């Protein structure tokens, strides 16, 4: 097969295929731009007073900024992953027909993957151009030569090349991995079905993740860990927890489906429950980005609470010592730290929006893939309202427990670093010794233990926001359902 | 029966003489039994007697005298009546095959029935093959194709009936023995 | 002379359901063989096994003295785009490609250049009387036109064996007859052997000989008489 043939077959597509290509390219563009920004921030060296923003000036803060940008790009990548599945039925038919004409299994996977890679390359190339143009347009040094944005540094060329290639390659790999689950035979595409329902093992992942995360906080002082070791523990703990929550959603879906089937009355719970039992992994796939973002958000919110507690501790301590200006710690500008947390929250919000878009894409895909069933149900007299309710139920039933789990896990992670801060140890030890003669505390809170509160309100806001985003996505998805239950669809092959 | 009607139909297109009629008959209805000359003239005589056809002329190009005939107004009416009369849709099953298969299945011993049925099926199949070849041969006339279609359709119907009958009888005897 | 294609004791199950329970069959060079039998008798499965689309669970499929049942999926795919042609009831054309691209597909997959492949494809469309449809997509064609294009695609590589599974099953009698006539004519002209799966004896009558399957085994009587159940 010549490359020209490969390209021709890869771009041979209907409207849905073009939509997929555009969405894939778009998400590749966004992800590439975000990562280029991250790389630019990391390319700044030393204490850079030439910027107006302290986040860019301080070397210690820049990795955080970069990490935030990368955090944004992750759900965008997940969105690209969702897009790959879009329009699968038409593509499956096409690939089977090509196989029948004599394409080998390898060639058909190549054709399917080539399409994704081409789209990704298109997007990341455009992203690079957009980035280069933008940094030229936004390069506005003020009177003192200070800049708002680091438009005066550029990552080294090899890094640029790697970043532009990263998204298409990742998309290609994700595509190829997804294609591993399908066998393209000349007679059609067979999806490997997991016959056994999911088990609750991901719960162990969550436990292990939380355990790893706890290690530096609990044992760090005895073990005398290096900074990098601490980061490795915290990072891997967080990732394991996220993976556990995402994978655990499958079990939650399955269990919810079984419960719906057992206790549900009426067609809606029957349809939704059976759907959850039949494809429990659907929830994991569609909600992965959103759940990850929610966990990250919960971590950020919990961390904000932790910071607030530390600041209060400093306030109390300084008051106790009678220091009025500055004093211990760095609370001169708590707003600055809160600003950093807010930055993360903005990233989380952005990520949630992107993830919700991913949910919409995935939902639309799953509806379109089963449109004949839906159309047939409509034809036999099942009202659209019932179908809509079933779709809503099958989306929300696993989502709500998964969201709660994610919020709890995120908060739990941070609480492991610090959940309480005792003030006035000496006084309490003195009292405990019972010898008397202890000096009375100068500050009413001096002899108490400061507990890091759980940010109920903010967590609820975060969870509610995520839920709302999904509701909007489902609402849009139901429009697709409406179009798909047109009886015309029964005639479409 | 309808030899008379066929001749009337052939004359509807214009006067023809006896030899011409025979040729046209054999060509248009190639799978029917070929018409004998005697039969042509006898039929024409009867038709003339009944006033359906009339002599329209004599010509003699090189050969013997040939009388050509044409349709009368009565004849045209008679033909129209025949064409518009609905044939009773096969009121009686009179096929030899039908009787034989039924007897073989219900009365004869299993071995003999089996041999007969297999042979009959194979004969039907090879006849169908012949007819299919004949009609797909380049240059086959429309008459050939129509006749082959008719025959193939009936042979296929025979085979389908045969198969269904066997399955039905098998199911029936199973029911009885169980 | 040994047969061009032969199957020996072919067994194939779908899960616990047996589809073929040991079928023998030979196809000689240039011969047209009809495989008939009632629905669910395993005739399509037999065709898929012979064409290398499915791998038999037991038994051998021998093509030119090679046991293709042992070949890899990729090797059997390559066989399908060089030595074999496949024609189904419908759905074998790629809906997004034009007729000429569809017909050119096996050549393109085999590594031909675009122009050359399109040239050959156009010739074959002409041979099947649908040259004027070259730039149309399958969705805009009638069933008969689609089957003619599919026939052109199945024959474009000048295969030694054409596998046709109810090729006229979705067509009305006359259109089906025309398409079938074309398939047989072109196959005879090129000496292509044909395995023709059908449930209709009038279609089987186009073949040189016929084998009948019933419940996954050969039925020598053709009528299901004395077949072990």
TrEMBL record, chain A:
GO terms for cellular component: plasma membrane. The chain crosses the membrane at residues 21-44, 64-88, 109-133, 153-179, 200-219, 231-260, 281-303, 343-368, 389-409, 459-481. The keyword Cytoplasm does not apply. Residues 346-480 form the ABC3 transporter permease C-terminal domain. It is a multi-pass membrane protein. Keywords: Cell membrane, Membrane, Transmembrane, Transmembrane helix. It comes from the Bacteria. Pfam families: FtsX. It is found in: Cell membrane. The keyword Protein biosynthesis does not apply. InterPro entries: ABC3_permease_C (IPR003838). This is ABC3 transporter permease C-terminal domain-containing protein. It comes from Paractinoplanes tereljensis.
From TrEMBL, chain B:
It comes from the Bacteria. SUPFAM superfamilies: Winged helix' DNA-binding domain (SSF46785). Residues 7-80 form the Transcription regulator PadR N-terminal domain. Coiled coil: none annotated. Residues 104-168 form the Transcription regulator PadR C-terminal domain. InterPro entries: Tscrpt_reg_PadR_C (IPR018309), Tscrpt_reg_PadR_N (IPR005149), WH-like_DNA-bd_sf (IPR036388), WH_DNA-bd_sf (IPR036390). Pfam families: PadR, Vir_act_alpha_C. This is PadR family transcriptional regulator. It comes from Paractinoplanes tereljensis.
Automatic annotation (TrEMBL), chain C:
SMART domains: AAA. It comes from the Bacteria. One of its GO terms (molecular function) is transmembrane transporter activity. One of its GO terms (cellular component) is plasma membrane. InterPro entries: AAA+_ATPase, ABC_transporter-like_ATP-bd, ABC_transpr_LolD-like, MacB-like_ATP-bd, P-loop_NTPase. Keywords: ATP-binding, Nucleotide-binding, Transport. Residues 5-229 form the ABC transporter domain. This is ABC transporter ATP-binding protein. It comes from Paractinoplanes tereljensis.
């Amino acid at each position: 097969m010549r490359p020209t043939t490969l390209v021709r077959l890869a771009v041979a597509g209907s409207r849905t295929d073009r939509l997929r290509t555009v969405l894939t390219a778009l998400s590749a563009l966004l992800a590439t731009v975000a990562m280029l920004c991250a790389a630019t921030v990391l390319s700044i060296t030393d204490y850079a007073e030439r910027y107006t923003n302290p986040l860019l000036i301080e070397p210690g803060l820049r990795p955080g900024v970069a990490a935030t940008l990368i955090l944004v790009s992750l759900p965008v990548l997940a969105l690209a992953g969702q897009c790959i599945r879009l329009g699968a039925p038409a593509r499956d038919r096409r690939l089977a027909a090509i196989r029948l004409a004599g394409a080998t299994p390898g060639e058909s996977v190549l054709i399917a993957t080539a399409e994704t890679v081409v789209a990704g390359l298109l997007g990341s190339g455009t992203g690079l151009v957009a980035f280069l143009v933008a940094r030229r347009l936004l390069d506005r040094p003020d009177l003192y030569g200070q800049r708002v944005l680091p438009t005066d540094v550029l990552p080294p060329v090899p890094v640029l090349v790697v970043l532009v290639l990263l998204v298409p390659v990742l998309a290609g790999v994700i595509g190829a991995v997804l294609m591993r689950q399908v066998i393209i035979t000349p007679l059609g595409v067979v999806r490997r079905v997991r016959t056994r329902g999911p088990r609750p093992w991901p719960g162990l992942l969550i436990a292990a993740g939380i355990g790893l995360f706890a290690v530096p906080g609990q044992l760090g002082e005895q073990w005398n860990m290096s900074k990098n070791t601490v980061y490795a523990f915290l990072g891997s703990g967080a990732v394991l927890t996220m993976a556990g929550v995402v994978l655990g959603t499958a079990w939650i879906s399955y269990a919810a489906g079984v419960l719906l089937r057992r206790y549900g009355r009426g067609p809606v719970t029957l349809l939704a429950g059976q759907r959850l039992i039949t494809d429990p992994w659907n929830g994991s796939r569609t909600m992965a980005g959103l759940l990850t973002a929610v966990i990250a958000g919960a971590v950020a919110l919990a961390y904000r609470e932790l910071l607030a507690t530390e600041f209060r501790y400093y306030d109390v301590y300084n008051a106790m010592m009678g220091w009025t200006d500055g004093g211990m710690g760095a609370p001169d500008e708590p707003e600055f730290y809160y600003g950093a947390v807010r930055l993360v929250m903005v990233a989380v919000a952005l990520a949630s929006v992107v993830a919700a878009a991913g949910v919409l894409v995935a939902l639309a895909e799953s509806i379109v893939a089963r449109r004949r069933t839906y159309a047939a149900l409509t034809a036999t007299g099942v009202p659209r309202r019932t179908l809509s309710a079933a779709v809503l139920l099958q989306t929300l039933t696993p989502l709500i427990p998964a969201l709660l789990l994610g919020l709890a896990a995120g908060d739990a992670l941070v609480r492991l670093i610090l959940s309480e801060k005792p003030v006035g140890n000496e006084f309490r030890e003195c009292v405990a010794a019972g010898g008397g003669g202890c000096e009375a505390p100068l500050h009413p809170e001096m002899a108490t233990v400061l507990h890091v509160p759980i940010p109920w309100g903010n967590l609820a806001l975060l969870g509610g926001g995520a839920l709302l985003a999904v509701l909007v996505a489902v609402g849009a998805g139901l429009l697709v359902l409406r179009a798909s239950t047109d009886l015309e669809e029964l005639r479409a092959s | 029966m309808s030899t008379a009607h066929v001749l009337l139909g052939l004359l509807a297109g214009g006067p023809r003489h006896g030899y011409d009629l025979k040729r046209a008959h054999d060509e248009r209805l190639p799978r029917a039994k070929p018409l004998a000359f005697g039969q042509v003239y006898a039929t024409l005589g009867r038709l003339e007697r009944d006033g359906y056809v009339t002599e329209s002329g004599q010509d003699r190009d090189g050969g013997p005298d040939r009388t050509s005939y044409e349709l009368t107004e009565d004849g045209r009416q008679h033909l129209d009546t025949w064409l518009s009369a609905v044939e009773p849709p096969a009121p009686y099953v009179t096929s030899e095959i039908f009787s034989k298969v039924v007897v073989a299945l219900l009365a004869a011993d299993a071995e003999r029935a089996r041999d007969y049925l297999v042979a009959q099926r194979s004969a039907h199949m090879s006849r169908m093959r012949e007819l299919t070849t004949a009609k797909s041969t380049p240059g086959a006339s429309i008459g050939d194709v129509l006749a082959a279609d008719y025959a193939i359709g009936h042979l296929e119907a025979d085979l389908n009936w045969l198969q269904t009958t066997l399955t039905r009888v098998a199911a029936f005897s199973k029911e009885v023995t169980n | 002379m040994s047969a061009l294609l032969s199957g020996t004791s072919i067994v194939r199950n779908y899960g616990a359901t047996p589809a073929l329970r040991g079928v023998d069959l030979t196809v000689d060079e240039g011969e047209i063989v009809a495989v008939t039998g009632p629905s669910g008798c395993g005739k399509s499965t037999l065709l898929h096994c012979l064409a290398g689309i499915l791998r038999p669970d037991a038994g051998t499929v021998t093509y030119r003295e090679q046991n293709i049942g042992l070949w890899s999926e990729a090797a059997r795919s390559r066989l399908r785009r060089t030595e074999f042609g496949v024609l189904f009831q419908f759905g074998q054309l790629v809906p997004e490609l034009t007729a000429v691209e569809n017909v050119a597909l096996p050549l393109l997959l085999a590594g031909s250049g675009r122009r050359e492949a399109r040239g050959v494809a156009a010739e074959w469309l002409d041979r099947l009387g649908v040259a004027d449809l070259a730039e149309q997509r399958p969705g805009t064609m009638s069933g008969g036109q689609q089957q003619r294009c599919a026939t052109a695609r199945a024959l474009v590589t000048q295969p030694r064996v054409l596998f046709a599974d109810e090729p006229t099953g979705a067509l009305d009698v006359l259109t089906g007859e025309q398409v079938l006539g074309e398939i047989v004519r072109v196959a005879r002209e090129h000496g292509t052997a044909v395995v023709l799966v059908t449930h209709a004896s009038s279609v089987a009558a186009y073949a040189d000989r016929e084998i009948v399957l019933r419940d996954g085994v050969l039925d020598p009587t053709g009528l299901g008489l004395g077949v072990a159940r």
